[in-house]
């Protein structure tokens, strides 16, 4: 792999940290460099430390690491928060004219740039971060002109003068460092002619929903799921769809349920306490056999927990949430590009089997921006399967000409007729019902309907491919298994591990691939996940009847590749847990 560069900017909320990082990430992407970002922001409405980190290389990067080469520090806390990642050869850009004296660690180059004064000369102090970007370009050998297109995209709506002032601010920042410092840290960011798409996990889910034909979205703002709704707003309308901001999460899922009953491909998304509120409707979705995609972007809990921090603690909720027994599917994308493809698959599964499908992501994946070749999202590869959606209902009528919307079938899937279908009128309620949807307490009909609904899952197990992705040495005796967003860090961790390791990354929790043989054949098995109790490890031990070793992280911070490599090496030397 070519040498990568790790850059970050940090300060207080309101300092424009996110927009500055986004501008630089877009510029690097347009220069043909791969990008992987990470964000840190406080769980409060206003104020608090916030940071935006970028790792960039001409090779693909899939994780953050414990190294920081260039830091733009708008506050002393920014330096304090990142001091352990700074090293000999790092540079800290700061504004010495401000009312704080930067405490630069020994061995780190301090680059004092009067950001505010230079910005004022360019047209306004608000552009001080753009000045810092220009300074970073000079230190890293990155052509400042690559910033221009990003600045145009960010500020184009505010008029050409604002755009030109920002371009000038960046160049003044570059010139100041060039004229006042002899900084040669050995960085010279290579550019290529490659063209990349830069997007985060929530954008990929929104894009996947549109590609899948989603035409209705209802949601209530909640961190970190809100940006799915923001992405769809203004885009879904171009395809005849609608976004509704509901008054709460319970209203949102019921609106989405209503839209799905009308025949529209429908979705809602939430996180944390929002998924708790939606639980009341899970059973109605399943009992009425309505296809619906429910996205849970996990965050640290329980209760309010840490709303802006990483965790994978909702697995049991997705598997078992809701009273009674609710047939469902649980799909867990393992990467940002998989967020796109698994969203499409979730819509297909929902309609083919007329069940709720839980699409489970997490905060780390939702806010991380990563580069991909455009062909990664080739729309020609998108397939839509609406299952047993029928136009003609003749074969599904009873002797009195009534449509059997809940007809008992061998595969468990009944015909589906949307409002307006000739002779397709029917009812569906949350009460147990017969084939016509009429309420019943008849024991035999109850058993038939329960078995029918559960049979859909068994059918899906046979018809669909519940596969997994694998990396590393496929013949290795050491096996590491993960689910969700840990895949990137785990893949890169292989570069730091001396032992041969096979990695399996699982994108389906229910149904899930049977890994019993793989687990049984391995000398060492380690399960990696971001929660305290090892919810996925419990499932695998249940499936394989074998104890596994566990790496659990629940600090609120995602796994890093080098950190994970160290933990895996330590686990490989430990004794296997007692049976």
What does this structure look like?
- The chain has about 575 residues and is α/β, with parallel strands linked by helices.
- The chain folds into 4 domains: about 180 residues, Pyruvate-ferredoxin oxidoreductase, PFOR, domain III (Pyruvate-ferredoxin Oxidoreductase, domain 3, 3-Layer(aba) Sandwich); about 180 residues, 3-Layer(aba) Sandwich (Rossmann fold), CATH 3.40.50.970; about 70 residues, no CATH class; about 100 residues, Rossmann fold (3-Layer(aba) Sandwich), CATH 3.40.50.920.
- It is built from 18 helices and 20 strands.
- Strands 9-8-10-11-13-12-18 form a 7-stranded mixed β-sheet, with helices on both faces.
Uncertain residue ranges: none
Give the full name of the CATH homologous superfamily of the largest domain: Thiamin diphosphate (ThDP)-binding fold, Pyr/PP domains
What would you call the quaternary organization?
single chain
Q: For the terminal residues, how far apart are their CA atoms?
A: 41 Å
Helical amount: 25-40%
Q: Please give the CATH class of the largest domain.
A: Alpha Beta
CATH architecture assignment name of the largest domain? 3-Layer(aba) Sandwich
* Portion in strands: 15-25%
Total count of domains? 4
Rg calculated over all Cα atoms? 26 Å
Largest sheet, spatial ordering of strands: 9-8-10-11-13-12-18
The best one-word shape is: globular
Q: How would the blueprint of this fold be written?
A:
Layout (H helix, E strand, L loop, with lengths): L4 E8 L4 H14 L3 E8 L7 E9 L12 E4 L2 H7 L8 E4 L14 E4 L2 H8 L5 H13 L5 H10 L4 H21 L16 E4 H12 L3 E4 L6 H7 L9 E4 L3 H13 L4 E5 L2 H15 L4 E7 L16 H6 L8 E3 L4 H18 L2 E7 H5 L1 E4 L70 H21 L5 E4 L5 E6 L3 H7 L7 E6 L1 E3 L5 H6 L2 E6 L5 H10 L4 E4 L8 H12 L7
Helix pairs in contact: 1-5, 3-4, 3-6, 4-6, 5-6, 7-8, 7-12, 9-10, 15-18
């Amino acid at each position: 792999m070519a040498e990568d560069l790790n850059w970050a900017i940090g300060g207080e909320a309101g300092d424009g940290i996110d927009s500055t990082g986004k501008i630089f990430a877009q510029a690097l992407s347009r220069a043909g460099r791969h990008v992987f970002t990470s964000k840190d922001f406080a769980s409060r409405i206003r104020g608090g430390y916030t940071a935006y980190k970028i790792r960039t290389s001409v090779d693909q990067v899939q994780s953050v690491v414990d190294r920081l080469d260039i830091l733009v520090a708008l506050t002393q806390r920014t330096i304090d928060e990142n001091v352990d990642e700074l090293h000999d050869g790092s540079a800290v850009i700061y504004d010495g004219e401000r009312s704080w004296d930067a405490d630069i660690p020994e061995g780190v180059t301090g680059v004092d740039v009067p950001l505010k004064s230079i910005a004022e000369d360019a047209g306004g102090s608000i552009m001080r971060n753009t000045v810092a970007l220009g300074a970073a370009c000079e230190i890293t050998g990155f052509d400042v002109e690559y910033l221009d297109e990003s600045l145009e995209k960010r500020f184009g709506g505010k008029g050409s003068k604002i755009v030109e002032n920002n371009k000038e601010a960046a160049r003044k920042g570059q010139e100041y460092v060039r004229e006042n410092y002899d900084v040669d840290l050995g960085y010279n960011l290579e550019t290529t002619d490659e063209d990349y798409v830069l997007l985060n996990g929530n954008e990929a889910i929104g894009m996947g929903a549109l590609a899948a034909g989603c035409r209705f979205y209802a949601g209530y703002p909640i961190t970190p799921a809100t940006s799915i709704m923001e992405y769809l707003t203004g885009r879904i309308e171009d395809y005849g769809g609608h976004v509704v901001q509901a008054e709460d999460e319970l209203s949102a899922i019921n609106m989405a349920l209503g839209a799905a009953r009308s025949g529209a491909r429908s979705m809602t998304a939430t996180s944390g306490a929002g998924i708790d509120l939606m639980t009341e409707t899970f059973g109605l979705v399943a009992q009425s056999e309505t296809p619906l995609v429910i996205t849970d972007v996990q965050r640290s809990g329980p209760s309010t927990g840490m709303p802006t921090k990483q965790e994978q603690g909702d697995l049991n909720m997705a598997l078992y949430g809701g009273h009674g027994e609710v047939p469902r599917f649980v799909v867990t994308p393992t990467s940002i590009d998989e967020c796109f493809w698994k969203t499409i698959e979730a819509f297909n599964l929902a309609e083919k089997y007329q069940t709720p499908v839980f699409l489970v992501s997490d905060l780390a994946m939702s806010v991380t921006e990563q580069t991909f070749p455009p062909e990664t999202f080739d729309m020609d590869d998108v397939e839509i399967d609406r299952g047993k959606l029928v136009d003609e209902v003749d074969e599904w009528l009873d002797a009195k000409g009534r449509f059997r919307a809940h007809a008992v079938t061998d595969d468990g899937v009944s015909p589906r007729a949307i409002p307006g279908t000739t002779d397709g009128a029917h009812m569906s309620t949350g009460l147990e019902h017969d084939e016509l949807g009429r309420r019943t307490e008849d024991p035999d009909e109850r058993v038939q309907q329960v078995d029918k609904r559960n049979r859909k899952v068994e059918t899906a197990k046979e018809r669909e491919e519940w596969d997994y992705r694998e990396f590393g040495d496929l013949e290795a005796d050491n096996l590491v298994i993960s689910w969700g967003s840990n895949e990137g860090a785990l893949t890169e961790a292989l570069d730091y591990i001396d032992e041969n390791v096979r990695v399996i990354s699982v994108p389906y929790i229910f149904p899930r691939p049977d890994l019993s043989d793989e687990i049984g054949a391995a000398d060492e098995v380690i399960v990696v996940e971001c929660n305290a109790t090892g919810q996925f490890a419990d499932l695998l031990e249940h499936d394989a009847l074998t104890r596994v070793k566990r790496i659990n992280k629940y600090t609120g911070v995602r796994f890093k590749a080098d950190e994970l490599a160290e933990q895996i090496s330590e686990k490989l030397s430990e004794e296997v847990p007692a049976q």
